[in-house]
Structure formats: C-alpha cells, structure tokens
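Subject: for your reference before the review

Hello V.,

The reviewers asked for a structural picture of the protein, and I figured it would be easier to keep everything in one thread rather than splitting it across files. Below is the amino acid sequence we used in the manuscript, unchanged from the supplementary table.
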Amino acid sequence: MLLIIFILSFALIFSFLIWQYVLNIYEVDFLVEPKELFTDNKSIVRIEAIPINSFGKRAPFRQVKTEFKILEGFNYIEVVYEDTSKGILIIRSIGQEGKVQIKISTNYSLIPTILEILIVKNLA
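And here is what came back from the structure prediction:
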C-alpha cells in the first residue's frame, strides 16, 4: 500500500513539473523568414509565433492564438495565408519597394510586437 502511494505521489509531482517547465508558455518569439521581401512578385515572408517554455525551447504540443494587423504598407503586399489559431502569416510582395509594419498581438504578450519588413529591388 505504501508503494502505491509513493508511486502515485511521484507521478503527480512529475506531471506537475512537466506542465510547469516544459508545457507551460512563458513567452512568445516570432520567426521571420526571410528578413526582407523582393519586388519580384514571387518572394514571400513567413511569420510564425513560437511558444517558448521555461527552458527557452519551443513548448511541445502548444500553439499561440495570434492577431496580425498591417499598420503600414498594406498596398505593397498581399496576404497569401493567415492562420490566427496557429500564429502563421505568409505575405508576398506585389512589385513595389517600401516598408511594411505588422502589429502582432498574442494572449501571452503584455504589449503587441511590431515587425518591420523592407521590400527591396532584387539586384541579382
């Protein structure tokens, strides 16, 4: 009987520690690939919200609900794909140079993050 209580208490403590340190979201980081767009109508930028756990790694099995709002330069881009439940935004240039500002808000951020993406000519 004592062994069963010991195993159950160990499992409960282990489950609590896994939840607090591995599965719990402590902050949200944003992956922007690549950092700038080109004016060739083919280049795309993928923005993804990544939940970070207490170890500084991606929190497994978790997704961040994200809201994207284009503040500046909405006439320079088109939105190819937007999934607010997974935190993914893919944009494409429509052929003009300029600057795009995107405000990103999540449930886990106190203040929104503003990303700036430059649209430059492809010189190659």
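For the response letter, the relevant points are probably these. Strands lie at 27-33, 36-38, 44-52, 66-72, 77-83, 88-93, 98-106, 113-120. The mean pLDDT is 89.

Happy to draft the paragraph if you're swamped.

O.
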